[in-house]
Amino acid sequence: MSRDRSGKASVTNPVTTPVTSPVTVPVTDILVYRDVAARVQAVLLEDGQAVEWIRPQRPGAAVRQDIILGRIEAIEPALNGAFVAIGQTENGLLPLKEAPANLKVGQSLVVQIRRLTTLTDDVTSSRSCDAGSDDPIDRGPASQPVNRSTKGHLLTTRIQYPGLFIVYEPIGDHQILRSKARPLDETMRTTLTAQELQVLKDQHSQVLAAATAPGTLPRLLLRPNETVPTALQSWSSLNLRSFQVSDLELFQEADRYLAARWPALLPKLRLHAGSFDLAAVFRLTDLAREASRRRILLKNGGSIVLDQTEALLAIDVNSGQARASEPARLRLQTNLLAATEIARQLRLRNIVGLVVVDFIRLADATARQELVAAFTAALAADRSKITIGGMTSLGLFELIRQAT
Predict the structure, then answer these.
(1) Residue 245, beta-bridge partner list
(2) Cα–Cα distances in Å, from 168 out to 130, 159, 177, 184, 246?
């Protein structure tokens, strides 16, 4: 139904700025649907192919940017922090520089999860949002997180409310313009940001009211990163072709969100109800398997192999079963196909950290330049900040990707 509402080793020529935007704008669609366990997930399609994925949230797991009324459990001057009960197995860690004066054990305090630091709860992507390099907030953990700490999730008292166009910080009554708003003309940008600011201020008022109401400690006050808002914040744009959902509840949630913040996108909202299997139609039923598969086959019979270590992601490009009368041309073709697929897999898996790619060796300097240019262009579609180290003296391509 449609809505009819109108670098680590030696590196060569390191580049430390984000990859520039691609020239070609792909056709984008957003799909939000439930898995067999009725958990909500979302996928971004570009030209019909899945490129980013907001994974289902595990029941009871913490999510980045959760706003919680916590309880001070211990104050540790040696760590310059306080441990706060937040309803998880581990207490969160709040830096003392962000804590109020005269902090006491047992005191309640409104906190927000700034960063997920434990492996067990690090289950959602995130994408979570329009996480271009200039965006002011983090949008979700990596799909393959590293256990960085036993101190629990990192907390903050500087609460942020993410929106489509702005991020609102009640402290200082501060608003931060997000990258999504910049392409809009000034009149539209002013109208939409003012409208959304009021929505976010209302959210903050509701959080304060919930924090002062009777209830147990600790307790969740607000989860800004629910799947539908996160998908819209991450992926919506004027170039969006459709936002498709699998049931009426998700449709109504998206409808309310867009009506309050960006009504111009309402005609793109579509409901597929009944026996219509959205995931099956778009061939997404094996998405979880694809995003964890070690070997990915290429169209010409070649393959890429991804091996995750504690320090980096190593990717090996192989010619495999590919055959051609001109071996040099085959090597280049396989590398070019691999470059496109590697860029997609980095986004789909939300890989974070150092990535080292071992392309098939190319003897011709012009062919090497073509490969580097093609890989750089493919990486440009990524909303994440990517630092390119380029080819090392050993012929390995290095890059660092930040979380979206």
Answers:
(1) 32, 271
(2) 15, 8, 9, 19, 31
> How many Cβ atoms from other residues are within 10 Å of residue 385's Cβ?
19
Cβ-count burial of 294 within 10 angstroms (0-12 exposed, 13-18 middle, 19+ buried)? exposed
| SS3 at position 268 | helix
Q: What is the pLDDT of residues 141-172, one digit of tens each?
A: 333 343 334 568 999 999 999 999 999 999 99
119: its two tokens? 């492996």
Please, where are the H alpha helices in 236-349? 248-261, 278-281, 287-290, 327-348
Beta pairing class for 240-245 and 269-271:
parallel
CA atoms of 42 and 315, how far apart (whole Å): 26
Distance CA 229, CA 257 (A): 7
d(CA 161, CA 170): 9
Classify 320 in phi/psi space as left (phi over 0), alpha (psi -120 to 50) or beta. Answer: left
Ordered DSSP codes for 215-256: --SSEEEE-TT-HHHHHHHHH--TTEEEEEESSHHHHHHHHH
Q: How far is CA 280 from CA 46, 273, 277, 286, in A?
A: 17, 13, 5, 9
Residue in this structure with the two tokens 């939000």, named with its chain if needed:
32
- CB-count burial class (<10 Å; 0-12, 13-18, 19+) for 362: middle
**Residue found under tokens 């109800």:** 273
**27-31, 43-47, 95-99, 113-117, range with the lowest pLDDT:** 113-117
Q: Which amino acid is at 358?
A: D
Q: How far apart are CA 32 and CA 39, in angstroms?
A: 10
Domain ranges across the chain:
1-6+27-285, 293-399
Whole-prediction pTM value?
Answer: 0.81
**Tokens representing residue 142 in the block:** 């990596």
Is 36 buried (19+), middle (13-18) or exposed (0-12) by CB count in 10 A? exposed
Q: What is the 8-class DSSP label of residue 397?
A: E
CA distance 254 to 238: 16
